[in-house]
Each structure stands twice: as structure tokens, then as C-alpha cells.
Write a structure and sequence with these properties.
single chain; about 350 residues; 11 helices; 13 strands; about 35% helix; globular; binds nicotinamide-adenine-dinucleotide; binds uridine-5'-diphosphate
């Protein structure tokens, strides 16, 4: 193995700039489920650059071939069109399990099917899949795969497991405040179940597992029309449409740039700790403040339009990242004002068809 891999590439995100030995290992066989999606494709870029063999498993529900096309022809890269709700046989060292209908537009698309499919799983029937089924059956299959081949398994869970939190900022030891019967619960409860399954396999089958609780993340390659707030505001401002602020716009979120997240995920996988770990940027913004940053970045004349808020919208969210700082030596490096322009240039070229930076 080559231990002289570009240190600069792996140091970004370190507190103090020390590189743990684990990150220098090379030539692993790694599955990334959901690897054609927004976060997954950036992770794949880093793993490929490190010299690993990467297998992307994706059903292209929200992911796009364009996100990973630049690796086509590289013998270390494979792309499999597959739904993780179906069993899968592979021989690998590590599994990054990202596959999930993650955006509100997609997971609220068919809530009834989503709920029924969870019951169907419990009852052993065969009904229709969406968010919950992917989270539950998909995670079960990937855990079964990890168990069979002795691979290390990383689950990308979410800050949504904290629901509408009664503790602020959120620490990993907080159990959350989730409405089990609300419109978001197919996602929240699906991820909570996925965490449970992951810990069950860890305890019962001694599987090596890692759990990341990801807070709102943005960057190039985000779906343009998936309804998340950063992609909405940026697309709206670029198209000279009003930015739609839901409710009074005083609810808060903490926005993390995608490269910081990928660094955290890799550190978590290579480190010695199961987690769960909050991975997010503690910088907290109201939606009105976010709209202002978008105005500053794109168009000072961009207007705002208020819309009724969605049901069960969490009032505030901000990660406590003490655990990740201490145990993974990780913290975000890129502020919202630094990261947003990088996303805007990608959105600009995708919306207006300028191919000059098609592969950000
Ligand atoms: P994304 O929609 O861009 O990526 C998800 C990928 O999974 C897509 O490529 C999609 O086609 C694929 N997929 C969905 N269902 C599948 C199935 N049944 N079989 C195979 N592939 C399937 O979303 P993302 O933002 O990149 O999210 C990646 C992961 O991170 C998800 O697990 C999500 O829950 C988690 N996460 C993301 C955020 C965020 O702000 N982006 C926040 C918290 C958690
Ligand atoms: N599984 C898979 N690939 C594998 C091994 C298992 O997709 O290489 C699936 C398998 O179909 C099952 C799930 O993972 O539905 C859980 O597997 P496990 O062996 O833990 O449970 P069991 O099959 O004994 O119920
Ligand atoms: N939101 C908004 N305008 C939009 C989309 C979302 O004001 O066009 C708000 C939404 O009500 C929520 C916040 O932005 O309070 C974050 O929403 P998103 O769906 O991006 O993430 P999540 O709610 O899952 O954290």
C-alpha cells in the first residue's frame, strides 16, 4: 500500500491537522448504497481518490448517473442499479449505507404506502415500498450482507431522530421528541428503526457498526427541486422567483457543507467508535437569515414570499458536536457564507445549461 496519499486531501476537517493511521489504509473494497445521490457521490469521489475499489448500489430514485459518470471506465469503479429492499450478494470490506428517499417531497410523496409497508414488513407480507421500507428492509439487507462477509457497516441516520427537540442544542444522548403518526414519521421513525437494527446486529452478531446523525447538508449536486430549503431558495433566487419562507421564518436549522460531512463520515468509518455521532455545522440560522445570505450571495433584490408551514415542522435544530470533536478529531471547516457560492455555481450551470462545470 501507498502510505503517502495526499495528506492535504485528508487533513481538511481535522482539529489540529493530525491524520489518524486508519485513514491512510488503501485498496479497500467499499459499497456505497445511495452512491449516485448528493452526499453519496461526493463520498465516492473521496474514496476513489484514496485508491479504494468502490461499488455504488443505487436504484436512481433520486440519484443521477451524472453524479458519478466521471468514474466510468475506471477499473476501481462499479455501478449497480439495484433496490436495497431486495437482497444483494457482494464481497466487500466496508458498507456505507446511504440509500434512502431523503427529501420531504420524496418521502411525503406516498405516506400511506410508506406506513403500510412498515406494517407489511412486520407482518411478513409483500406490499409497496417507499421511505420506511427502504429504511427498514434496506438496512436489514445491508446488515445481513455485512454480517455474512464480516464488513464494517456505517448507517447515515439523521438529526430528524430528535424530532421537534425539547433539548437545544441536541446531544447524542437525547432520545428525541418524535410524533410517531405524523407526516414526517415515515422518515423519522424509519431512521430510528434503522438505528435500532444496526445496534441489534452489533450486539447480537458482533458486527462492526458506525452511526452518523447527519444535520442539514447542502452543496453541489443537490437535487434542484427536492423541496429542501437551501435548494429551494437558491433555485428560486436564480430563477428570479420569490423565495418561499414557510411559517414565520423564525424556525432554525444548522447548515453543513457537503465536504465537511464526507470528511466526518470517513473519520467515523475509520475510527474506533460506534457512535451515534452528530455530524453537522453548529452555525444556526433562522430561515429568514438564510434567505438574507442567499440574497447577499445571488441577488440583493431577491424577494421573499411567506407560505403556510408544513405539519410537525421542528422549531429549532442545532448539533452539539463535542463528541465528534473529541473522538473523531473532526469539526466543520466551511461556513454557510463560504459554502453557498460553491453550490450556487453548480445550480447556475444546471438550471441555465452551462456545461462548463458539469462535474463539481
Ligand atoms: P439523495 O436523495 O441525494 O441520495 C439518496 C440516494 O439513495 C439516491 O441516489 C437514491 O436514488 C438512492 N436510493 C433511494 N432509495 C433507494 C433504494 N431503495 N435502493 C437503492 N438506492 C436508493 O439524498 P442525500 O442528501 O445524499 O442523503 C444521503 C443519506 O444521508 C440519506 O440516508 C439521508 O437520509 C442522509 N441524510 C441527509 C441529510 C441531508 O441534509 N442531505 C440530512 C440527514 C440525513
Ligand atoms: N442478505 C443480503 N445479502 C447477504 C446476506 C443477507 O441481502 O449477503 C439479506 C437477507 O436476504 C436477509 C437480511 O439480509 O433478508 C438479513 O440477513 P440475516 O442473515 O441477518 O438474517 P436471516 O436471513 O437469517 O433472517
Ligand atoms: N422551508 C422554507 N421554505 C422552503 C422549504 C423549507 O421555509 O421552500 C423551511 C421548512 O419549513 C423547515 C426548514 O425550512 O422549517 C428546513 O426544511 P428542509 O425540508 O430543508 O429540512 P428539514 O425540515 O428536514 O430540516
Amino acid at each position: 500500500g501507498n502510505n503517502h496519499r495526499a495528506t492535504s486531501e485528508v487533513t481538511s476537517g481535522f482539529v489540529g491537522g493530525k491524520v489518524p493511521l486508519g485513514l491512510k489504509r488503501k485498496g479497500l473494497r467499499i459499497v456505497v448504497t445511495g452512491g449516485a445521490g448528493f452526499v453519496g457521490s461526493h463520498l465516492v469521489d473521496r474514496l476513489m481518490a484514496r485508491g479504494d475499489s468502490v461499488i455504488v448500489v443505487d436504484n436512481f430514485f433520486t440519484g443521477r448517473k451524472q453524479n458519478v459518470m466521471h468514474h466510468y471506465g475506471n477499473p476501481n469503479f462499479e455501478l449497480i442499479r439495484h433496490d436495497v429492499v431486495e437482497p444483494l450478494l457482494l464481497e466487500v470490506d466496508q458498507i456505507y449505507h446511504l440509500a434512502c428517499p431523503a427529501s420531504p417531497v420524496h418521502y411525503k410523496f406516498n405516506p400511506v404506502k410508506t406506513i403500510i409497508s412498515f406494517l407489511s414488513f412486520v407482518l411478513g407480507c409483500l406490499l409497496n415500498p417507499t421511505a420506511h421500507k427502504t429504511n427498514v428492509v434496506g438496512t436489514l439487507n445491508m446488515l445481513g450482507l455485512a454480517k455474512r462477509v464480516g464488513a464494517r457497516f456505517l448507517l447515515t441516520s439523521t438529526s430528524e431522530v430528535y424530532g421537534d427537540p425539547l433539548q437545544h442544542p441536541q446531544v447524542e444522548t437525547y432520545w428525541g421528541n418524535v410524533n410517531p403518526i405524523g407526516v414526517r414519521s415515515c422518515y423519522d421513525e424509519g431512521k430510528r428503526t434503522a438505528e435500532t437494527l444496526t445496534m441489534d446486529y452489533h450486539r447480537a452478531a458482533q458486527l462492526e457498526v458506525r452511526i452518523a446523525r447527519i444535520f442539514n447538508t447542502y452543496g453541489p449536486r443537490m437535487c434542484i427541486d427536492d423541496g429542501r430549503v437551501v435548494s429551494n431558495f437558491v433555485a428560486q433566487a436564480l430563477r428570479k422567483e420569490p423565495m418561499t419562507v414557510y411559517g414565520d421564518g423564525k424556525q432554525t436549522r444548522s447548515f453543513q457543507y457537503v465536504s465537511d460531512l464526507v470528511e466526518g463520515l470517513m473519520r467515523l468509518m475509520e475510527g474506533e467508535h460506534v457512535g451515534p455521532f452528530n455530524l453537522g455545522n453548529p452555525g444556526e440560522f433562522t430561515m429568514l437569515e438564510l434567505a438574507k445570505v442567499v440574497q447577499e450571495t445571488i441577488d440583493p433584490n431577491a424577494s421573499i414570499e411567506f407560505r403556510p408551514n408544513t405539519e410537525d415542522d421542528p422549531h429549532k435544530r442545532k448539533p452539539d458536536i463535542t463528541r465528534a470533536k473529541e473522538l473523531l478529531n473532526w469539526q466543520p471547516q466551511i461556513s454557510l457564507r463560504q459554502g453557498l457560492p460553491l453550490m450556487v455555481s453548480d445550480f447556475r450551470s444546471r438550471i441555465f445549461g452551462d456545461r462548463s462545470d458539469a462535474n463539481p
